[in-house]
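Consider the tokenized backbone below.
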């Protein structure tokens, strides 16, 4: 549910689904319209609701309602990409399998000159080639998310408010 959405929207939609259907079996029993209504504030609500239903069906049938324990199996589920799979591996199984790179991490790393990449996936691969694994998880790159939402924004970054403006090759200062 998280891709292309702010955290508060994701949390609100997730909480609504859990309130309506706290188990996988109950998610499958929900009317498609009800599941989509829970996702209504998210981007691509219909697609996300469909992916949730399809992934839940696979989880029940193939994994007994639990989550698989490998990146390959997780990314094989509808709607689960590398970023979501890496997050699930870390939270559910305590395994850090990939650097958590979102649009904010991608943008900031490029602006700082740490990478020169065109996609989040390429940024992830580049970071993994030199960034210590201990920084791949939530505690490592999570500060970039809020920083990217508030200071180093995509449009009109607030460079004058930035703590690293003197070291940033992309800083736009008066």
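A designed sequence for it:
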């Amino acid at each position: 549910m998280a891709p292309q959405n702010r955290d508060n929207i994701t949390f609100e939609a997730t909480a609504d689904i859990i309130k309506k259907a706290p188990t996988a079996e109950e998610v499958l029993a929900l009317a498609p319209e009800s599941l989509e209504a829970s996702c209504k504030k998210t981007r691509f609500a219909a697609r996300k609701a469909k992916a949730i239903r399809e992934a839940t069906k696979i989880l029940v049938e193939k994994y007994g309602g639990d989550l698989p324990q490998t990146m390959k199996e997780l990314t094989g589920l509808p709607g689960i990409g590398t970023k979501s799979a890496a997050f699930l591996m870390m939270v559910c199984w305590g395994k850090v399998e990939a650097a958590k790179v979102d649009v904010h991490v991608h943008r900031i790393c490029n602006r700082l000159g740490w990478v020169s990449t065109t996609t989040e996936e390429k940024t992830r691969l580049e970071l993994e080639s030199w960034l210590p694994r201990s920084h791949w998880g939530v505690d490592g790159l999570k500060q970039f998310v809020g920083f990217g939402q508030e200071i180093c924004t995509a449009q009109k970054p607030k460079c004058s408010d930035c703590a690293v403006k003197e070291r940033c090759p992309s800083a736009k200062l008066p």
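The chain has a mean pLDDT of 91.
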